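Practice problem: predict the structure.
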Amino acid sequence: MNTTIRALLGATALTATAMAASADNLTIATVNNGDMIRMQGLTDDFTAKTGHTVEWVTLEENVLRQRVTTDISTKGGAFDIMTIGMYETPIWGANGWLVPLDDLSEEYNVDDILPAMAGGLSHDGTLYAAPFYGESSMIMYRTDLMEKAGMEMPDAPTWSFIREAAAAMTDRDAEINGICLRGKAGWGEGGAFITAMSNSFGARWFDMDWNAQFDTQPWKDTLEFYVGMMNESGPAGFATNGFNENLSLFQQGKCGMWIDATVAASFVTNPNDSTVADSVGFALAPDNGLGKRSNWLWAWALAIPAGTQKEAAAKEFIEWATSTGYIELVASKEGWANVPPGARTSLYENPEYQKVPFAQKTLDSILSADPNNSTVEPSPYVGVQFAAIPEFAGIATEVSQEFSAVYAGQQSIDEALEKAQAITNDAMEAAGYR
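Answer:
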């Protein structure tokens, strides 16, 4: 063996040994959404590049929120990376619970993150979580059923049009529901949907003095409209349906319309999973002519809890998973329609991605949601489908449970709103807001 070859082999062995010696096993908590499941299938690429291995803890949305909140607030140390969103990130960053992401590599290009996403994942101008994907919400509908009903979906419909179209598309004998919407309890499940919807009806959670507003007409109008439409045209048991349940119904051809996360567009148009993939259209979330649409703004993002012993490896994973390189990796394996959307400006400038039928509607929806000005009447909080205060998650989870009880026929709208008013005001008083 000549000297050069021996030296090269020795260097390779040293590199492998160094990589093994410095390799970490990262524990990551994440949500059981399709894009996150896809990422888990691609982590061999990360391990091959860095030597680090990954252990996934994959949880249903409500359970994930509970687990990561408990862990970080008690300094439990169970996770090296957490999947969190726009609600938790600024609050936890302000508390010093998260590692600042202010030293990501130049190659990563943090300036490419869409401003709406970067802003919602920062505190005092410092990024504390990197968006894996960003979303708003929009209407996904069956073009064949809309045509059969003799109707045409506008680009920006009203709620009254949606209710009329839902009734026209409903065919109980064929198990087709005109509309599928979230009713499942949880502040980020049915609570997120009804809050975003209420914005378009002129409702808000609080007035400028932090008084609860559930005793106002706009909230009653919102719930009466929602319950009436869902009883007419929604699926049985909608009170327990969240994102994944409605996705399954739509993919099986059992929904005429579904108003939900823009990220679902790739799943309902994927012929491998969706029986109606070739007949799906898109429109902006509905309004009532009051100047606010009923779409939300969200990002599922990756953050590092302060105190982890594996901060450097965790940052390597975040750079890998939220980079343009990861987007290109998914595109090479599953096509541009299946890449994680809504996080990077460059994606929407990419000619290949511009060919994807829902790309522009997703961007339009994201850009039309304003977390600093989400309600018709002035409100003291930031957030579209949530109020960005630490107390909100607990309060809104309880309120959403009261609403779900209405959807299940267990109490009246008036009873639920009275309870919501009391729950919210009691909690705000205890927290010192009033």
